[in-house]
Design a protein that fits this description.
heterodimer; A: 433 residues; alpha/beta; Ubiquitin-like (UB roll); Fumarate Reductase Iron-sulfur Protein, Chain B, domain 2; two-stranded antiparallel ribbon; 36% helix; globular; disordered C terminus; B: 317 residues; Glutathione S-transferase Yfyf (Class Pi), Chain A, domain 2; Rossmann fold; 2 domains; four-stranded parallel β-sheet; 15 helices; 8 strands
Chain lengths: 433, 317
């Protein structure tokens, strides 16, 4: 047993009183959870403390709070772990009598004490991404079989328990509350990565043309760090960008597509980043109508940089650094490959412990999923995720991801996203091969 | 110590003072820099977002070139973004032998190979990590000629060098998310804690959502000013672009005067080691530290006396 000082932020918006800290000393095992401590205080000393919780086992996702500055589940954070965070922040290693500050999550309005309004922010954003399967027709009478690798791939986002920890500390949302945000965009990937969904392109266009969509993520890793379930929302956002930009060639009005392609072209040409070209190219090129107002508004910045000798006209206009031919060769070789290889360590796990790792391959295809009579023996034994066993699910459906756009009608002819469709019964009925 | 030195792109592009100040500081710390001139951009996350294998191959090539540097103890970078992007690629390369073999096959045409030995994997450290873990704070302290007495410094880590903690090897034995604090103190300065210490400068979305990008930079600068900082210090040139180069524009977005100098880490170190602001390229900053901080009062040894009187007042100027 050890003593911990629990500081709980108390606030009741209806009371007219300002928020304040309540301090309690609790005597608990260092490996008891922060939730244990909160409930102990609530049960024994102050029943008015507002906290939302249910399962106490890291499953229900109700008890998201900030503990010593970091968001997470109170029920699966040990007191010593939370205390260690603060000890580290103050430069001392003392855990005994360490202070644990518990606050409500950020980016969401407080209802009372540690309870935030998930409806006002989190669930609204989830609804924004059409969070159900828009099934390809006709829906088979029996199981809708999904290739094993695809299923394993989307399990990472399906692991989300909607606790809101990632939303709490999203740094884009902090300055731009309209940003769709990490949890909802991870949910969006769950359907874009599902071969049974019929409207991948429409979903991606919807999310890339939105000024507060996939290109509004500032790549800060806060959501990756916050998530208690390793969903890595930011990684899913990057995959949405990759699929939107490379497989569907969706040229969004937010410069996301152009910036990415300008960057790639820039490195291929120069080896090192030549910033003077990147900005105008991200807006479509120096003489593009879109670039002109942007470049004019940047003139004061450019002028100061020139005046300070940060950049020289010669350096800005010429390309002093040229990519070695080996770098160009790498670009050419990889860009010419028919399939894009992606290694997701969440799926394949790490070497050494498990030697026989198969090259992971997530096909992204619009070909209909080959259906299989459930009475027939499965084509391959199913393997648990990360088992490392060679997945014999090959031959996979068509691997070429570059031709996706050729197989679908022009954007004008797409069906609108069926937002209004009644949510079909649970999407969790998928069966693996 | 001899290091395979990866300066990155921006330190030789829009923040030439970073590369320059590192070159000045290195000999004072007995660091021999062997620059990886033929290596390419780390991709800054954008290449990986476009094509993961492409980013992994380019960085594997950089690692292979680093491994070829005779007697180099490790690879060193001076950019948080390089640190984060390269560590992410290295994690994949080291984790999966089949994937590594595939990448090495591409490198083989050039006669290069990235070798992974689980007992001694490639070490790639930002200058900040190297300062604390290789040189050591005591040794650093011993080299200080001009303690940053009364200089109130706000650490700004940026994202790539502190998250995700597991990948970056941050734990109780390696509190890398405290190293800037520790270095500032070792140099004799005063750490200013403010809300933005671990937040994002906003740079990655500057071309996509300029207002949101500059709102982030402006907010953190404002928070540091409110906490009475004289300057910020950054281990990342991309943060420097948004916090310094774009500072006048950020001030417009957040609607307040800013004027907070932002120093690169080697500049702060160099200053304490006795180098002059000018030779550290501080005249190249948009918010000139030389015009805002009165070095004669802020940065003199306490023994010079009267230091306290005018200290800190400079920031308001």
């Amino acid at each position: 047993m050890a003593n911990f000082t629990l500081r709980i932020r108390r606030y009741d918006p209806g009371s007219g009183e300002a928020a304040h800290w309540d301090e309690h000393t609790v005597d608990l095992r260092p490996r008891a959870s922060v939730l244990d401590a909160i409930l102990k205080v609530k049960n024994e000393r102050d029943g008015s403390i507002g906290i939302r919780c249910s399962c106490q086992q890291g499953i229900c996702g109700s008890c998201g709070v900030r503990m010593n500055g970091k968001p997470g589940l109170a029920c699966n954070t040990h007191l010593e772990e939370a205390a260690g965070r603060r000890a580290s922040l103050s430069g001392s290693a003392q855990v005994e009598n360490a202070v644990i500050e518990v606050e409500p999550m950020g980016n969401m309005p407080v209802i009372r004490d540690l309870i935030v309004d998930m409806d006002a922010v989190h669930w609204k954003k989830i609804q924004r991404v059409t969070p159900w399967l828009l099934a390809k027709q006709p829906v088979p009478e029996r199981e809708y079989v999904v290739p094993h690798d695809n299923m394993v791939d989307v399990t990472q986002t399906m692991a989300c328990i909607q606790c809101g920890a990632c939303v709490s500390d999203c740094l884009s949302m902090e300055v731009d509350p309209g940003f769709i945000g990490p949890a909802a965009l991870a949910k969006a990937y769950r359907f874009v990565g599902d071969p049974r969904d019929a409207q991948h392109a429409e979903r991606l266009w919807d999310l890339s043309k939105d000024p507060q969509g996939i290109y509004d993520c500032t790549h800060c890793f806060n959501c990756v760090e916050a998530c208690p379930k390793d969903v890595a929302p930011m990684n899913q956002i990057m995959r949405l960008r990759r699929i939107a930009g490379s497989d569907f060639d969706l040229e969004d009005p937010n410069n996301g597509y152009r910036h990415e392609h300008a960057f790639v072209k820039n490195i291929k040409r120069n080896g090192l980043l030549h910033e003077a070209d990147l900005l105008p190219d991200s807006y479509g090129g120096k003489f593009h109508p879109r670039a002109v107002p942007e470049l004019i508004s940047s003139l004061p910045t450019v002028a100061t940089a020139l005046a300070r000798g940060k950049i020289t006209p010669q350096k800005a206009l010429t390309h002093p650094h040229k990519a070695p031919k080996e770098v160009k060769r790498i670009f050419e070789k990889i860009e010419a490959q028919e399939e894009r290889v992606e290694l997701n360590l969440y799926i394949v796990g790490y070497d050494e412990a498990e030697e026989q790792l198969d090259m992971p391959h997530i096909p992204h295809t619009d070909e209909p999923t080959p259906l299989r009579d459930p009475h027939e023996p499965p084509p391959a034994a199913s393997t648990p995720p990360g088992s490392g066993a060679a997945s014999d699910s090959k031959p996979l459906p068509e691997a070429d991801m570059t031709g996706a756009e050729e197989r679908r009608p022009p954007r004008e002819q797409w069906e609108p996203l069926r937002h209004d469709e009644a949510e079909p019964e649970s999407t969790d009925t998928e069966s693996e091969s | 110590m001899k290091v395979a030195y990866w300066p990155g792109c921006v330190s030789r592009g829009f923040t030439p003072e970073l590369h320059g100040s590192m070159a000045r500081v290195a000999p004072l710390l007995d660091i021999e820099l062997v620059a990886l001139d033929r290596a390419a951009c780390c991709g800054a996350g954008v290449l990986a977002e476009h094509n993961q294998e492409l980013a992994d191959t380019l960085n594997a090539r950089t690692f292979a070139l680093a491994q070829q540097v005779q007697d180099a103890e490790l690879m060193m970078n001076i950019c948080s973004t390089c640190q984060g992007a390269q560590t992410e690629c290295q994690e994949r390369l080291d984790a999966n032998s089949e994937y590594r073999a595939r990448i090495n096959q591409t490198l083989a045409d050039e006669g290069l190979s990235y070798d992974f030995d689980p007992r001694s994997p490639l070490t790639n450290k930002n200058f900040l990590w190297l300062l604390v873990e290789e040189i050591g704070l005591d040794a650093l302290k011993a080299k200080v000629k001009r303690p940053l007495t009364d200089l109130k410094v706000g650490p700004f880590y940026g994202c790539y060098i502190v998250r995700p903690t597991r990948r970056l090897g941050i734990d109780s034995e390696h509190p890398r998310d405290r190293y800037l604090h520790m270095v500032i103190e070792a140099l004799g300065g005063t750490v200013v804690d403010y809300a933005g210490v671990y937040k994002c400068c906003g740079f990655p979305i500057i071309t996509m959502n300029k207002a949101a990008s500059l709102a982030q930079a402006g907010r953190h600068l404002g928070d540091a000013l409110d906490a009475d900082a004289d300057c910020l210090v950054v281990p990342c040139p991309l943060c420097h672009l948004n916090l310094d180069l774009q500072q006048p524009a950020a001030a417009g977005v957040v609607g307040r005067d800013l004027g907070l100098p932002v120093l690169h880490l080697p500049q702060l170190v160099g200053l304490a080691l006795g180098l002059e602001p000018k030779e550290l390229g501080m005249g190249k900053h948009v918010v000139r530290p030389t015009s805002v901080i009165d070095w004669s009062t802020s940065v003199v040894a306490a023994s010079a006396g009267a230091a306290g009187a005018g200290a800190g007042a400079g920031a308001a100027a």
